[in-house]
Amino acid sequence: ERRHRCGACGKMFKKSSHLRNHARTHTGERPFPCRECGKSFNSQANLLRHHLTHTGERPHECPECHKRFAQTSTLRQHLQVHLRKFPHRCPECGLRFHRPHRLLLHRSHHTGEYPYKCSQCPRSFLLRRLLDVHLLGH
User: Fold this and answer.
1) Is 96 in contact with 87 (CB distance < 8 Å)?
2) How many CB atoms lie within 10 A of CB 21?
3) Mind telling me which residue stretches traverse the membrane in this protein (predicted)?
């Protein structure tokens, strides 16, 4: 429940410490200076986040491409790239694909379904056109 109200804008907060940090956005107070560069921040959390720019630490890893980020917000923003580029997700293993037919091909690895069987050898295929191409080689 949010029971702490900002007197300046009316925004509500669950914790008084959050209200205190927020109130500094109205007053301009920035009591947390960076020892490296002198830039000041309105909260300890923002200072710690900023400190990563000096250390080069990137603790947040993208599960899709393993790129690393200093901030969770930057990782979240980056993940949208994967969701837009690869919207088709395999329900078995979570892999994502750009095109739906690529997902269909991939899923056959889980199901073992290859419905198009070659009449001249033991091979079978997920898609008819793949069987047709294969038959050209016989």
Assistant:
1) yes
2) 19
3) none
Q: Are 48 and 59 in contact (CB under 8 A)?
A: no
| Residue 102, domain extent | 60-111
End-to-end CA separation in angstroms for the chain: 72
pLDDT of 10 > 90? The answer is yes
**88: helix, strand or coil:** strand
% of the chain surpassing 90 pLDDT: 60
Q: What is the dihedral of CA 32, 35, 38, 41, to 10 degrees?
A: -20
Residue of 28 and 98 predicted with greater confidence: 28
Average pLDDT over residues 67-91: 89
pLDDT, tens digit, for every residue of 27-61? 999 999 999 999 999 999 899 989 988 999 999 99
71 shares its domain with 102: yes
Q: Each residue of 56-81: b (16+ CB within 10 Å) or e?
A: eeeebeeebeeeebbeeeebeeeeee
> Residue 70 contacts by C-beta under 8 Å, 6 or more apart in sequence?
49, 52, 53, 57, 58, 59, 60
